[in-house]
Amino acid sequence: xxxxxxxxxxxxxxxxxxxxxxxxxxxxxxxxxxxxxxxxxxxxxxxxxxxxxxxxxxxxxxxxxxxxxxxxxxxxxxxxxxxxxxxxxxxxxxxxxxxxxxxxxxxxxxxxxxxxxxxxxxxxxxxxxxxxxxxxxxxxxxxxxxxxxxxxxxxxxxxxxxxxxxxxxxxxxxxxxxxxxxxxxxxxxxxxxxxxxxxxxxxxxxxxxxxxxxxxxxxxxxxxxxxxxxxxxxxxxxxxxxxxxxxxxxxxx
Amino acid sequence: xxxxxxxxxxxxxxxxxxxxxxxxxxxxxxxxxxxxxxxxxxxxxxxxxxxxxxxxxxxxxxxxxxxxxxxxxxxxxxxxxxxxxxxxxxxxx
Lengths: 253, 93
Hints:
The complex is a heterodimer of chains A (253) and B (93). Chain A has 253 residues and is an alpha/beta fold. Chain A is built from 8 helices and 7 strands. In chain A, helix 6 packs across helix 8. Chain A starts with a helix and ends with a helix. Chain B has 93 residues and is an all-alpha fold. Helices cover 59% and strands 0% of the residues of chain B. Chain B is built from 3 helices and no strands. Chain B starts with a helix and ends with a helix. Chains A and B meet through helix 8 of A and helix 2 of B.
């Protein structure tokens, strides 16, 4: 009974704040960028717009669910490489795209069709240049992704293609790895645990918990240039699986 | 070419092109769920099979029904038999 009331209070507060924050925050950030855009280049305007999306994302996953949900981000990459990067993430929950806000780079995401259908958020994602991978040919996807990388934008992808039903890491799709091989940008595995019930697949109910995000060491082109796309995707998948095992075996952060 | 030859050559393609361990190459293995291939990998697979067997399979509708490694063995076997029949027919003409 106590758990029910905790869930009720948490979800009521979160979704109320989420609605208010989205109704005020999104137009506010959009207006700031819109007012600046006549005086700056298109590239800089997009950079600011994407940064604004990151602020919004940080607000949604850091401030709104506090203290019911806590997020711990650890960066294990000690290289001096400033990017852009190709971030490869496991995918357990609808909160994963919001958690990408923790990556301290200008990032666009490779997403499925449904996120574009979310009112307001989908429109903002489209405007920011997010890529709906299922709605384009591989050639189109590769060209757009490489163009973004060449202009300094990092890419975050969830190569499982769909949220894991049981917490295991599903098979990876190779499209983003083919782009990596063709473009030569570093790959960075990002492992997320603890958010499988925030919210669980098929529901919007959020449960309290601790989310851990580990940004692993970047894998530079020299390390994978001789790999086939199949071998590369499975190598990265294994790195993600191994790290998740470590993360879930830890008793504390 | 016997059925066993086809199995061995197909397995060679998986070992050479995808570096999949021999122990995993069993007829019942689903090439998507168990071996982790996706639609783009299948394109690579088709190219490698064409080279290995010297046949054209790229636009064959039956490719869409392939799920397991056993399906691939049967598909190649059927193609080889069709080619043999066609060649025999041409010779008769």
